[in-house]
């Protein structure tokens, strides 16, 4: 037996609203990290400074000529500076000849 | 963080995002709203905040690094779009229980029964605004959905609001969309909840409670408008628990707090709306997010000097890691809010104190030792050194944070006295206050004027000789 008490009849509308974003293509991946310049982006939480130090150490053993641009070059990607920092990334990457980026540390 | 990676991809630079394990669900949801559902993620096992150096090293070099390499050198799998209903589509038909089951199972409700949003009810709400139903107020992050007048009406119906609340609901969504408020941060882990403060004659016209039990459910306008806020965050902005809403514990939504403007006027102060830049007597909503708060019971004394040390001490005790919004991630964006019981406000004002003097008192006396300040910042961020002297020297924070080298010098919780928000409300006959700890830049205070209901509707309501007076 159904638990429902089906009083009345309703035609209920969808309470969401259409998404206004289209699928964006991702950038072409690199053939190797050897000799490439990698930007570090950080939201200044969850020990990202230590994580980047470890990644630098580990990746150098596999790609001796990898180069890094420190998170200090870009500023905090979260919080009060976020909008300006994120908006400036394309320009900064070009200036710093960045080939790829890593962004940490939350979501 | 994913927004930075999405910007990199858009600039033609491949990215890899480092995501702690507990945030993977959040990353999956956020990436859809950014239009990059296949953006590559590298897992950071566990949470770095509780790992020793060796464990962190094992995790990064043993797990994360390989994923970073893969993310930057291998093509990600192709993305696909999921199909969704249209804005005016009927998604559930049937009896009350059937409709509610559909809404609950499709994550469209907060768990309580909703009022089925039928076209007829939605159209009743739309009568209370001059705005076109399809007008887009903003594209609301993180889901990137259009915040339309139509969607406001639909969610207002669901929340149990009355149609005449529509101008309040529209103002709230306009405030939600203000970049200074930062709606995109509404799913952050402290789980702060928005408090809506209402000002103006609309308080009485719509029957909002502004006296005893002002934060208690049981008053239709206060309760249903508060519920609307959370439903709109869920359904249009896209904050669903276990997805874009990453609150560690969370809070339920707060009912609307209306200011007691009779008392404010009587004691010669201005309402919060005036402090926020609007004319006294204008109908406004003010929103800001608070991580928590506490009732400060029995503030005793017959002069401000007798009463306020206890209140200043209580303000300090509500704040811990939140000072990172004063020095750190937010930089001067901490805005504590104090609900002041009317009889306390009367005593303070009775001695000739303005609200500005009260704010100044809190700025001067709600302080903590500099060494403690630096320790809290260090503990919160795990950054080994926080040095207020250096921050002042670099011009990043005001000089008041380093007026001497004494580690025991007392430093304020906020940058300016005006950062304290004061609202007179609550039980008119009880000498208590309520202090809210603010969520800084991740829910900064924003005020919006409430537009008047169309003249034609006001006339119709008057003619109906109904009990409702439209704003």
- Largest sheet data of chain B: 7 strands, mixed
Number of helices of chain A: 2
**What is the global morphology of chain A?**
elongated
Can you tell me the overall shape of chain B? flat
Molecular structure report:
- The complex is a heterodimer of chains A (107) and B (471).
- With 107 residues, chain A is α/β, with parallel strands linked by helices.
- Chain A has a domain of 68 residues.
- A three-stranded parallel sheet of chain A has the order 3-2-4, covered by helices on one side.
- In chain A, helix 1 links the parallel strand 2 and strand 3.
- The longest helix of chain A is centred in the middle third of the chain and has 15 residues.
- With 471 residues, chain B is α/β, with parallel strands linked by helices.
- Among the domains of chain B are: 72 residues, no CATH class; 244 residues.
- Chain B is 37% helix and 15% strand.
- In chain B, helix 6 packs across helix 9.
- The mean pLDDT of chain B is 94.
- The interface between A and B is large, with 73 and 107 residues.
What secondary-structure arrangement, pairings included, does this model have?
The complex is a heterodimer of chains A (107) and B (471).
Chain A: E1 10-13, E2 37-42, H1 48-62, E3 67-69, H2 82-95, E4 100-105
Parallel strand pairs in A: 2-3, 2-4
Chain B: H1 2-10, E1 15-20, H2 24-33, E2 41-44, H3 53-73, E3 90-94, H4 96-105, H5 119-126, E4 136-140, E5 145-148, H6 149-159, H7 166-176, E6 193-199, H8 202-205, H9 220-237, E7 257-258, H10 261-266, H11 272-275, E8 284-296, H12 304-317, E9 337-340, H13 342-350, H14 355-365, E10 367-369, H15 370-381, H16 388-393, E11 410-412, E12 421-424, E13 433-438, E14 446-449, H17 455-463
Parallel strand pairs in B: 1-2, 6-7, 9-12
Antiparallel strand pairs in B: 4-5, 6-8, 8-13, 8-14, 9-13, 10-11
Helix pairs in contact in B: 5-6, 6-7, 6-9, 7-9
């Amino acid at each position: 037996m159904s638990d429902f008490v089906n009083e009345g009849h309703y035609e209920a509308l969808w309470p969401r609203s259409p998404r206004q974003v289209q699928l964006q293509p991702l950038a072409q991946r690199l053939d190797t990290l050897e000799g490439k310049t990698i930007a570090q982006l950080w939201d200044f939480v969850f020990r990202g400074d230590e994580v980047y130090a470890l990644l630098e150490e580990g990746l150098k053993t596999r790609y001796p000529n990898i180069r890094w641009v420190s998170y200090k070059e870009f500023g905090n990607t979260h919080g009060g500076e976020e909008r300006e920092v994120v908006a400036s990334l394309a320009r900064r990457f070009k200036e710093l000849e960045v080939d790829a980026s890593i962004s940490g540390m939350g979501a | 963080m994913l927004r930075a990676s999405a910007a990199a991809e858009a600039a033609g630079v491949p990215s890899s995002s480092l995501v702690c394990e507990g945030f993977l669900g959040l990353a999956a949801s956020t990436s859809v709203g950014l239009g990059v559902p296949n953006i590559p993620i590298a897992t950071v096992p566990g949470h770095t905040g509780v790992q020793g150096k060796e464990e962190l090293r094992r995790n990064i070099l043993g797990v994360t690094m390989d994923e970073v390499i893969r993310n930057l050198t291998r093509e990600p799998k192709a993305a696909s779009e999921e199909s969704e209903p249209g804005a005016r589509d009927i998604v559930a038909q049937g009896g009350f229980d059937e409709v509610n089951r559909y809404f609950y199972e499709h994550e469209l409700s907060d768990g309580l029964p909703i009022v089925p949003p039928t076209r007829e009810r939605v159209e009743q709400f739309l009568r209370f605004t001059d705005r076109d139903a399809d007008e887009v107020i903003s594209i609301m992050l993180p889901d990137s959905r259009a915040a339309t007048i139509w969607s406001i009406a639909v969610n207002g119906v669901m929340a149990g609001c009355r149609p005449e609340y529509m101008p309040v609901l529209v103002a709230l969504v306009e405030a939600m969309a203000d970049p200074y408020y930062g709606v995109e941060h509404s799913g952050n882990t402290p789980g702060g909840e928005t408090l809506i403060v209402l000002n103006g004659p609309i308080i009485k016209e719509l029957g909002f409670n502004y006296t005893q039990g002002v934060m208690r459910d049981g008053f239709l306008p206060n309760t249903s408008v508060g519920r609307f806020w959370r439903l709109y965050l869920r359904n249009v902005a896209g904050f669903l628990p276990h997805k874009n809403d990453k609150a560690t514990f969370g809070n339920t939504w707060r009912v609307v707090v209306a200011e007691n403007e009779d008392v404010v006027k009587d004691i010669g102060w201005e309402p919060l709306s005036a402090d926020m830049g609007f004319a006294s007597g204008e109908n406004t909503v003010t929103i800001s997010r608070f991580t928590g708060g506490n009732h400060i019971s029995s503030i005793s004394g017959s002069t401000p000097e007798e009463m306020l040390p206890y209140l200043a001490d209580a303000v300090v005790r509500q704040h811990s890691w939140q000072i990172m919004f004063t020095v750190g991630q937010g930089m001067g964006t901490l805005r504590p809010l104090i609900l002041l019981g009317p009889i306390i406000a009367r005593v303070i004002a009775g001695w000739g104190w303005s609200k500005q003097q009260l704010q100044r008192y809190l700025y001067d006396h709600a302080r903590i030792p500099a060494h403690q300040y630096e320790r809290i910042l260090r503990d919160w961020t795990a950054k080994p050194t926080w040095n207020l002297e250096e921050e002042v020297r670099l011009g990043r924070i005001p000089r008041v944070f380093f007026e001497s080298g004494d580690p025991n010098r007392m430093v304020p919780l906020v940058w300016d006295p005006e950062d304290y928000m004061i609202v007179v409300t609550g039980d008119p006959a009880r000498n208590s206050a309520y202090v809210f700890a603010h969520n800084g830049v991740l829910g900064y205070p924003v005020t919006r004027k409430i537009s008047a209901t169309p003249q034609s509707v006001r006339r119709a309501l008057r003619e109906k000789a109904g009990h409702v007076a439209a704003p």
